[in-house]
Design brief:
The chain is mostly helical. Helices cover about 75% and strands about 5% of the residues. A two-stranded antiparallel ribbon has the order 1-2. The termini are far apart.
Length: about 300
């Protein structure tokens, strides 16, 4: 009798759980049943590719041999590979520099746009044009603009006495700068649109109180506006970090990861290992590791959002 008391207590706790209570109510039960197909479809479309990728990373898959289970040997090979850490470093450099420039430039343009009274809608529409272009089209445009012989950027540099620069053809900082410039041109309008909307939504009584207290422009910006925009900023940064981590189109079209491997970001390396080298299980392992890293960064930003 005494032995059954813990079991009875456990059953009582389970019966009082929120899901069980929800299921016992007919209306809520109907809501769950109606949403269940969508949840199952989402699980198949999103969950199964992730599970399949993880399973591939635990096997040895080659074009000439049958798949074989190898456990965590692929992870040991990837984590012990120098090119993997080089790719991770290049991806972090590209992500951090692009994000900082886009955020700073987007905030500056949003502050300027917030002061515009006439034609603000037209200006916002024109600013959004780069976002409407696909990354591949934007990369093609900048590949022409950065051409050593006839590119408009080198032409402008020549007019001010600076020699033409081999932006994407020689090793150095040029290829990375070209990638960052292309991404900044295309993605900064996203920050402008979001932050300008956030600035317009700030309560005017708080702004007027800051003006009455004699707060100057910079003090008002850093002590009033930015703290109030912190949740919006973190959400915007979260989306951009995820997008920058999986950048592929711009790099593939503009530099193809070169010269050498100086601009080979994570997505391009995974593509090369899988589609070019036929190292399917190795590429799946790299993809799984980068997915986990992206997830950890996203969790950190979400916790920062909750704290703010």
């Amino acid at each position: 009798m005494a032995a059954t008391q813990p079991v009875q207590a456990l059953l009582e706790r389970v019966s009082k759980a929120s899901f069980v209570e929800t299921w016992r109510r007919p209306q809520r039960r109907m809501v769950i049943l109606l949403c269940l197909p969508a949840f199952l479809l989402l699980g198949v479309l999103v969950g199964w590719p992730i599970v399949y990728g993880v399973l591939l990373s635990l096997q040895r898959v080659t074009p000439t041999a049958a798949p074989g289970w190898v456990g965590f040997r692929n992870y040991q090979a990837v984590l012990g590979s120098g090119p993997f850490w080089q790719t991770l470093f290049i991806t972090l450099v590209f992500t951090v520099l692009s994000l900082v420039i886009e955020l700073g430039l987007g905030m500056a343009l949003a502050l300027m746009l917030a002061r515009v009274v006439r034609g603000a809608g037209l200006i916002r529409t024109l600013i959004l044009i780069p976002v409407m272009l696909t990354p591949a089209v934007a990369a093609i445009n900048f590949r022409v603009m950065l051409n050593y012989d006839y590119g408009v950027i080198n032409y402008v540099l020549n007019q001010v006495g600076i020699a033409s620069q081999p932006w994407v053809s020689q090793a150095g900082v040029g290829p990375m700068l070209a990638l960052i410039l292309t991404d900044v041109w295309r993605s900064t309008p996203f920050f402008v649109l979001v932050l300008s909307s956030g600035l317009l939504a700030l309560p005017q009584d708080v702004m007027e109180a800051a003006d009455v207290d004699g707060a100057r422009i910079w003090r008002k910006l850093f002590l009033v506006k930015i703290p109030m925009l912190a949740p919006l900023l973190l959400v915007t940064v979260l989306f951009r970090v995820i997008d920058l981590f999986r950048t592929f189109d711009i790099v593939y079209v503009l530099t193809q990861g070169g010269p050498g491997t100086s601009t080979t970001v994570a997505s391009l390396r995974i593509y090369n290992d899988m589609a070019v080298g036929n190292f399917t299980s190795y590429a799946a392992t790299e993809a799984t590791i980068f997915m986990v890293l992206t997830l950890l960064v996203s969790i950190g930003l979400i916790r920062a959002m909750k704290a703010s």
